[in-house]
Design goal:
The chain contains eight helices and 14 strands. It is of the alpha+beta class and 280 residues long. The termini are far apart. Keywords: Iron, Metal-binding, Oxidoreductase.
Length: 280
Amino acid sequence: MRFDANTLINLDQFPIHSDGAARDALIAQIHSKLAKDGCVVLKQFLTPMAIRLVTAEADSVARYAHRSFNRTNAYFTTDDPALDPDDPRRRFFDRSNAFIPADHFTKTGPLRQIHDVPAFDPFIKACLGQQHVYRYADPLADVIVNMAEEGEGFPWHFDTNNFTITLAIQNAEEGGLFQYAPNIRRSGENFDAVKQVLDGTSDKVVSLALEPGDLQIFKGRYSLHRVSPLRGERKRYVAIFSYVEEPNMVGAPERTKQLYGRVLPIHLERAGQRADRYID
């Protein structure tokens, strides 16, 4: 079934589809917030109907989620014994989470229909305020749903892609806070600041309680972040739309295998093809 934009997005409050003063003011507010700490939340961006539709879609494909239970550092790299034992690259934490890969969400499903609203990409590009913004070309990771259950969460990490756009779909009964330390990578790796976050001594950590229908724009390549453990029987669903600064970018093979349980030929063909020099 096809839906129009008004059915899916709260266009009265967020006029992303119409040029004019209201849209310009909204984008200006977003620019200010992103410049400050790399994160902005648009409350109730989705309509109640859209929330119901996407929740039902996530439920219908939840069985395809790749669950992983392992230990990772903030960079998803392997241990390097040559480094100091207290180096943040040698700090590993339990990770228990699940991702429903992108190839389980069809073009005619509600999640991709939201992403494909004609005004959506231009709005995101205007919000990010950068000349080069592209949809993530990874066929397993461009549009995904993060699924978490009782006791699960996601430890401190950086994102592979430069910008992440998330839609909160369904919360657990308790827990699941989104916590981040803004702009740690503004000028390099900044391992000392990362160590403070991992040690629990940083004063930079911000906590957000996202609600179903909220749209979050986040520069996860530069800000260390995590999701706190969940409590209760209800699953937590968060949809993720990923954007990058280079065309045709896909995830690194090792990290893709960790997150989605498999790699495709495209991941091996394009391994290492990105301009920045961050270790992940």
